[in-house]
């Protein structure tokens, strides 16, 4: 006895896809930074009050909070902002973050480069889904479809 199963592939709203991609990107982002704490050179720089070329102070830490808060907020805002705003915000922020992530990976260790590549891929997904957001179906097309369904 042979049975063939078919599976229904549900349509997923682009808002959910984009929000999930922001969450995934943030997880990778955090882990890459946390893994850096295992490095003696990073810990030594932290003890000296520096991160790369930056001195750790109020201004730097405020900037870091803003940098991390934006994608964190996009997890929610991607779900609730009007479509035109969320599309634009997601495209712009994803591209800007991809540039900063790629730039920060220059000269880094392999784990950092791999993590950054994953982040950039996730950010590319955000930009892609925002860019290719489905167009609204016109009222007449919707009515015609409903009429066909009732008749058929």
SSE layout and pairing:
Layout: H1 14-36, H2 40-47, E1 50-51, E2 54-55, H3 58-80, H4 83-104, H5 110-131, H6 139-151
Antiparallel strand pairs: 1-2
Helix pairs in contact: 1-3, 1-5, 3-4, 4-5
Transmembrane segments: 20-40, 60-81, 88-106, 112-131
Keywords: Membrane, Transmembrane, Transmembrane helix
Pfam families: DUF6326 (PF19851)
Q: pLDDT under 50 segments (min length 5)?
A: none
Number of extended strands: 2
**Span from first to last CA?**
33 Å
Shape: elongated
> What is the overall pLDDT average?
91
What is the overall number of helices?
6
Percent of sequence in beta strands: under 5%
Radius of gyration: 22 Å
List SSEs in N-to-C order: HHEEHHHH
- Helical percentage: over 70%
Strands of the largest sheet, in order across it? 1-2
| Class inferred from helices and paired strands | mainly alpha
Query: How many structural domains can be distinguished in the coordinates?
Result: 1
* Biggest sheet overview: 2 strands, antiparallel
Q: Outline of this structure?
A:
Helices cover 73% and strands 3% of the residues. It has 152 residues and is mainly alpha-helical.
Molecular structure report:
This protein has 152 residues and is mostly helical. It has one domain (14-132). The protein contains 6 helices and 2 strands. The chain has helices at residues 14-36, 40-47, 58-80, 83-104, 110-131, 139-151, and strands at 50-51, 54-55. The chain has a two-stranded antiparallel sheet with strand order 1-2. A hairpin with a 2-residue loop joins strand 1 and strand 2. Helix 1 runs antiparallel to helix 5, helix 3 (58-80) runs antiparallel to helix 4 and helix 4 packs antiparallel against helix 5 (110-131). It is elongated. The model has no long low-confidence stretch (mean pLDDT 91).
């Amino acid at each position: 006895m042979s049975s063939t199963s078919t599976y229904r592939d549900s349509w997923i709203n682009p808002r959910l896809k984009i929000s999930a991609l922001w969450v995934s990107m943030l997880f990778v982002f955090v882990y890459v930074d946390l893994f850096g704490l295992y490095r003696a050179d990073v810990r030594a720089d932290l003890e000296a009050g520096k991160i790369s070329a930056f001195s750790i102070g109020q201004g730097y830490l405020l900037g870091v909070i803003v940098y991390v808060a934006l994608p964190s907020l996009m997890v929610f805002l991607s779900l609730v902002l009007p479509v035109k705003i969320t599309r634009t915000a997601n495209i712009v922020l994803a591209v800007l973050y991809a540039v900063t992530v790629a730039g920060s990976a220059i000269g880094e260790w392999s784990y950092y480069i791999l993590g950054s590549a994953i982040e950039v891929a996730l950010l590319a997904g955000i930009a892609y889904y925002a860019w290719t957001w489905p167009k609204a179906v016109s009222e007449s097309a919707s009515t015609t479809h409903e009429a066909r369904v009732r008749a058929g």
